[in-house]
Design brief:
Layout lengths: L1 E5 L7 E7 L5 H9 L2 H6 L6 E10 L4 E10 L2 E9 L2 H25 L22 H10 L2 H8 L3 H13 L2 H4 L8 H15 L8 H16 L6 H11 L1
Parallel strand pairs: 2-3
Antiparallel strand pairs: 1-2, 3-4, 4-5
Helix pairs in contact: 4-5, 6-8, 6-9, 8-9
């Protein structure tokens, strides 16, 4: 295992990178740090900003598993990706992490919170009204997650209720709701994945597409470091 800490007196972001089963070259270490310039600018106003990156090479599957944990104030933002090459997985993690930071900053600015408890029996993700397709397309084209998130907000209530029903089927996950994560965390995870995959979405109603993103989004989310140990058996049962 290699453990490296990046810290410049001018940087507000403390960075710790751990690698397992893989030795990085000097050029690759530079790639890791250089990829973080935009993230550093995003978190510069936070009094505490610590990023932990873990890059694990799995010999059996011949894939890299990249996990990130960004600590801001009392918030921990997680992402995780797998790929046959470490750099594409790392890029996706940082890109998703940046979108999560943007979403957090918007919440803090508006002092708004999303519902933590879901109820109801809705089994389809049906919006309050149809989203503006031109706004969605333009937001994706501009890689503007906040604009995309705003245009998708018509699905918030339906998606929350659907996620609540999904979780009820799995007591091991439901038991952690409210203590280790919130329903709004899962909602945001679905939207983040929708944003990442919007360009390759199937020709279908967006609500149906979101419905299909729920299961893989939640499975990926509960693999966060603080949940991994107890979820290993649970994840095996879902295969």
């Amino acid at each position: 295992m290699t453990n490296r800490i990046f810290r410049d007196e001018l940087d507000d972001l403390k960075i710790q990178v751990k690698t397992e089963n893989y030795q990085f070259s000097a050029e690759e270490w530079d790639q890791i740090e250089n990829q973080l310039d935009s993230l550093k600018r995003l978190v510069k106003d936070f009094p505490v900003a610590e990023l932990h990156v873990q890059i694990h090479w799995h010999r059996r599957s011949q894939t890299f598993h990249v996990k990130t944990n960004l600590h801001l104030l009392k918030q921990n933002l997680f992402t995780g990706e797998r790929d046959v090459l470490w750099h594409p997985a790392y890029e996706r993690c940082i890109r998703k992490l940046m979108n999560k930071v943007k979403g957090l900053k918007e919440k803090l600015a508006k002092k708004s919170v999303y519902s933590k408890v879901a109820s109801g029996t809705l089994h389809q993700v049906i919006p309050e009204r149809e989203p503006d397709p031109e706004k969605l397309e333009q937001a994706f084209k501009d890689q503007d997650f906040l604009a995309f998130r705003q245009a998708m907000s018509v699905y918030d209530d339906a998606l929350s209720k659907r996620l609540g029903r999904w979780i009820e089927r799995y007591p091991a996950v439901s038991a952690r709701l409210g203590s280790e994560f919130t329903l709004s965390d899962l909602v945001e995870e679905v939207y983040l994945n929708a944003f990442e995959q919007f360009g390759s979405r199937p020709v279908d109603r967006i609500g149906n597409w979101l419905e299909h993103l729920i299961d893989p989004s939640v499975k990926a989310f509960i693999q966060h470091p603080e949940l991994e140990k107890e979820n290993l058996g649970y994840l095996e049962g879902l295969k």
